[in-house]
Amino acid sequence: MTNRFIAGAALLVVLSGALPETAAAFTGRRGTRVEPVNKVVFEVVPKGSGTGSDYWCGAADYARQALGAGWTDTIYIARGRGQSVTTGRRSAVQYTLNASAAGITPIPPSLSLNSLKVGDHMSVQQANSYCNIGPLRF
Question: Considering the entire predicted model, what is its pTM?
Answer without folding.
Answer: 0.80
